[in-house]
Amino acid sequence: RGAAGGGGDKKRDVADDDDDDDEYDGVPVECTPSELSELREQASALTFDEARIELLDCARYGEVDAVRAILDAHSGAGAGAGASSPPLVESVDRTGSTPLHRSSANGHLSTTLLLLRRGARRTASNDSGNSPLHWAASNGHSSVVKALLEEEEEKEKEKEKEEEKVDVLKKNDFGRSALTEGFSSKDTEVVRLLLEHDSAAEERLLSGGTEVDPEEVEGEGGESDGDVALNDASSVDTAGTGSTSGACVVHEFDFLRGSDDDDVDVDVDVDDEKTNGSKDDDDGRRKKKSVLIRELPITRADDPFGSDPSEDTTGLGIWCASLVMARWASSPSVVGRLRGRRVVELGAGCGVPGLAAAVALRGGDGAGGGGAESMTLTDLNPATVRNLEYNVALNDPDRRNQGGGTTEGTEPTTPWSRTVRASTIDWDDPSTYPHCADGGDDDNDDGSDARGGVDVVLGSDLVYQSAVVPYLLKAVSGLLPRPGGLFLYVAPLDAGRDGLDDFLRPGGALESAGFVRSGDRNDSETMGGRLAPDSYRSNPLRNGDEEECFLHFHELASTRYVLHEFVRK
Q: Which of 103, 110, 152, 369 has its CA 20 to 30 A from that of 402?
């Protein structure tokens, strides 16, 4: 381009030439010595402003030796010295983009390496907040992405300043990070390189970069010491779980997103006077049925199950099977059978399925009109139950928009809190099984439950070892003692769960305990269940962000899940 153009496409074996200029800055020379000399002469004749324009142009087209010549000629040092005036190498065009932006965007590896070794800043942002890494990732240039990250590692050895460190999660003015752009490129190598970078550590991906203050995590044994403040990200107690701090994230789910009308209940009560059928109205109706779930890091990652069931901290995280169950629990076929019933979710963890069902069932006024008689979310680990209580309060329509909390040990004060509850349950101890709230019309004079048990039990991927099966079977049988009791269960297909086959297969533990499979299915691959529709594995996040969904729930789309339905004889 112009006076310093040329040399962009030529390739030769530099070992065939004895010139000292064959390679310096660690970047091979691509033209002949005579051509390089001519380029330097042309570059020397340029004014500084002309050199700046030429540099930007040559970087765009990957003319590495022209870039080299311009930097040499205007560096204030001898050719080949590898020094450059920072103002020149950091020249910008009308959009604020540097030569490194241009070479990175177009995938010119040699030019990118040369610019980096001449002092170009990898973290430079243009007028839109994009760094060279943003552009390289967006266009799927894996070799350039690798170079930008590896060159940073070399700088790290020289104790690079904090502000010069690459951050793959730093967002541009459009809210997109280099990692976001990498996912958009659909280049798996680019995504791998970015995910393996130190700045994409798991805790930052989970929390969006926000850490929980250790001083704010208080309490003992999961007992509440006051309100669950909905704007306090650290109010869950983690004492006794091996963690005193951590990161959390609140997801907003829309289990109507990506689902066919035949799959999910879309009936919502809305004031007709406030509705004109517009898209904004539809979004408003859907938001009324969005589900907020706080997820916490699973503590003791090396041994999350612990030596006792009460030490199991796996429920602090969201498992993909629970997202599939949430879709199913929100479908017309299930919603209709939950209305007016007592429902218990076993091993609820963060409570996604139970809360999704409760939100789908409640009326537009939040009073639970047409909803379940009761929805009880259960688990055993104290910290998990505490987080369940938080999530129940988070979805209370009377508190959700007010930043309010819920106080343990006090009478429920809202229609939602009288219907939806979190509870501690020990599968091996029937005295802990929730039946219903005391004082109902069906209670005996002594306050005990005359009906005995509940009507529906939900469970998602609860069998992970054969030793669990007897206890789970005891709980399901104890909670559903009457004929017609419904047990809905979701399990991943081909997950290799020890004991799962014995629990679910025809003639297995459940059928031996008096349960029959609903429907006539003899598929041995699915143990008599049916494969979940593809829509149940689609992105459930309300914002529709595919990158965010992949980061948190990468197994959702790639794993097949089976829906199992049993009825008590």
A: 369
